[in-house]
Amino acid sequence: MGKNKKLCIIFLRLLALGATLSAAIVMATSEDSTTVLNLTFDAKYDNSPTFVFFVIANAIASAHTLLVIFLPSNGLFPLIVVALDVIVTLLLTSSISATLAIAYVGKKGNAHAGWLPICDQVPNFCNQLTGAVIAGIVGVVIYMMVLLHSIHSVLNPLLF
Amino acid sequence: MGKNKKLCIIFLRLLALGATLSAAIVMATSEDSTTVLNLTFDAKYDNSPTFVFFVIANAIASAHTLLVIFLPSNGLFPLIVVALDVIVTLLLTSSISATLAIAYVGKKGNAHAGWLPICDQVPNFCNQLTGAVIAGIVGVVIYMMVLLHSIHSVLNPLLF
């Protein structure tokens, strides 16, 4: 693999690290409170298991990226990296889809189920959540690009 | 590829077709109604965009499987099949995660957001939804097995 290509992949992995790490941190620090009839309600990420899953998935992806940058690129390591990249991409896709589904109910509510939207009451919480989801989507898109490249570079020495 | 292996993969694909098709049909036919204070409420899959996404994703996966079974296995076709398998696996993972997230709120509610569980009111709807999710999970697991095999069989002639 050319040195430029290698540097380009490390750059992409660092970008992915930045995206998944900020997604996890922004989600984990999201908080807002509202007062209804003298009662104060707190909105935090750990109020929903889906948001906790989102933080864990992005933390795992960040740890994976850090690990992969320092792994040697000889022997069986590239194959292991491709396998791990596939698993982490599936994990990120799953956590973002679940978070989007819950965030949509938080934003629009669901009249049929009698679930009211909560974003008007806790706007700061919803804004941070939106930021976290955008960072998460950026992360998974970079992951998919890196994955395409790692599959190609594992195939490459066999093809040519 | 040996004839037995080919038959085994077609068998797995037919199983996946059965699973994704039943997931789509069971979800699309899920319905229940409840009467509260003389008002009747209907619970249907199209009350939530997440459940509609689930039906569409499983329908796409079913169509993909049907198409792939009749595709020839020479030239560039196996590579195209691997690429499509990856996309469909991501699509199924995404739809099942989102559906599980919403189904969990339907089952347990979310006290922090003031969302009440609805499964006690519409048990038949929840049971059908559970069946659809289980069929969906079976489908995506078989898809992952087929994907592993197709990646292996694309690599195989290059490796040996």
Automatic annotation (TrEMBL), chains A, B:
Coiled coil: none annotated. It is a multi-pass membrane protein. It is found in: Cell membrane. The chain crosses the membrane at residues 52-72, 79-105, 125-148. GO terms for cellular component: plasma membrane. Residues 1-23 form the signal peptide. Keywords: Cell membrane, Membrane, Signal, Transmembrane, Transmembrane helix. Homodimer and heterodimers. This is CASP-like protein. The lineage of its organism: Eukaryota, Viridiplantae, Streptophyta, Embryophyta, Tracheophyta.
